[in-house]
Each structure stands twice: as structure tokens, then as C-alpha cells.
Amino acid sequence: MGHLTTKDAYKSLEERINWFTQGAPPTETLYKILQVLYSEKEAKWMALLPVRPFTLKRAAKIWNTTEAKAEKVLDHLCEKALLVDSEYHGVRRFVMPPPMAGFFEFALMRTRGDIDQRYLSELYYQYMNVEEDFVKDLFYATETKLGRVYVQEPVLTNEHMNHILDYEKASHIVEEAEYIGLGLCYCRHKAFHAGHPCEIDAPWDVCLTFGNVARSLAEHGGHARLISRRKPWMPWNVPMRPIWSR
């Protein structure tokens, strides 16, 4: 993979990230964030990967290396939650998640010793809460929205509704999910390290992911743990008070 040194690694990665509908405005802070999350070699490798899901064979061809060597790199990137994987018709596929909700959050969904989580949290706070360009672009720059609000089903009675489509029901999303993952709240973890802890001392073990993303995060690096959809796992019954490490 030595031929991947022709361009500045982090500039190439920033350009690759901004192929997404949801990008990340390039600033000095963004480059510092990328340097925490990616080694220089990882940045070079990631910058060459497609936006759409790709196979091991495709990655090996792009990197001009063997499939065995490519798989080792891809597994490592999954362990860091910089990639997520899935299986489609018996073939393993990989994809780079967007910044938000994606690899920015995944980095703080568990405690880890391979990065300085306090320093990363301070960078996130600077990038999102102080500089604000990223957040403004996230919510206002495109017609593709970051998220949506689900109907709060328990407050609706037959008197006030005709029908709620399954697509609008949070309960339907939960019931249909093959995998459900539970991890640390990225927002509260970040705020704690950045010197702005949650004022109501809310539990941190509350962040839910669904489907193959949940499975990938759980299998690679323990960024989430797989849970049942039955009530005993509900996060407000399992408040987490660990000793946080940098």
C-alpha cells in the first residue's frame, strides 16, 4: 500500500468525508479530530474507499494488495468503528459511516484507551458548540435531514387518531430490529470530558442502535452490547456509573 502517499493523508480523508450528503466543514479543529481517530496510514486507506458499500475484493483492488492483507486492515477499522460491516447474500460488505450520526459518536460510545477521549471531547465541543458551522450544515445545508421525530404512541387514543403508519412508530422499529445495541450516550460522555457534565446526572448507558450497525458495533470493539427488546434491558433500569478513563 506504499503508493498511497502521494497526497496529504488528512486532506484526502476530509475530501472523502465530504462526498457524503452530510459532510464536515474543513477547519483546523476537524483535522485535529481526524488525527485523533485515524493514524496517517488509516487516513490514506480510508480516503480511497467508495461511498457505497464495498466488498473485501473491491478494497483489495483499490489498495493494490492481497485480500488477506486488506481484510486485516478492514477488521482493524471496524474495531475502531471507523467502518461498519454487514453480510448480503453471503458476502461481507463494508461502509464508512457519516460523521453524525456515525463515526464521531461511535468513538465515545464506550471507554477506550487507544485514544485520548478527554482531548477528543474538547475538540468535539469546539467543533460543534463553538465553531457551529458543522451543526448548521448538519441541520440546514441540505434537504436530507439528520433525523425525525416519532409519534409518542402512549398519549394517543382512538379519539385522537385514525391510524399511525408503522414507519412512524418507534415501537415498530424496535420490534422489527434483528439486532439492538446499547452503548454510552455520546453526548453525555463528551460533555463530561469537556467540562460540561449533565446537570441532572442522567445515566449514560442509554444510546440505542439497530440492525447491522448494532451488530457490527457489538462484534467489533465493543462499542455497543447486544440486548433483548424485552423490558428488563430498558436503559433507565440500568444506570451506569463507571470510573471514566481518558
Describe the protein.
- This protein has 246 residues and is mostly helical.
- The chain has one domain (8-133, 164-237).
- It is 41% helix and 9% strand.
- The protein is built from 11 helices and 6 strands.
- The protein has helices spanning 9-17, 28-37, 40-47, 56-63, 67-79, 99-106, 117-130, 133-140, 170-176, 186-193, 211-219, and strands spanning 54-55, 84-88, 91-95, 180-183, 207-210, 225-226.
- It has a 3-stranded antiparallel β-sheet with strand order 1-3-2. Strands 5-4-6 form a 3-stranded antiparallel β-sheet, with helices on one face.
- β2 (84-88) and β3 form a beta hairpin.
- α1 crosses α3 and α7 (117-130) packs across α10.
- It is globular and about 65 Å long.
Overview features:
3-stranded antiparallel beta sheet, disordered C terminus, single chain, 6 strands, mainly alpha
Write the layout of secondary structure elements.
Elements: H1 9-17, H2 28-37, H3 40-47, E1 54-55, H4 56-63, H5 67-79, E2 84-88, E3 91-95, H6 99-106, H7 117-130, H8 133-140, H9 170-176, E4 180-183, H10 186-193, E5 207-210, H11 211-219, E6 225-226
Antiparallel strand pairs: 1-3, 2-3, 4-5, 4-6
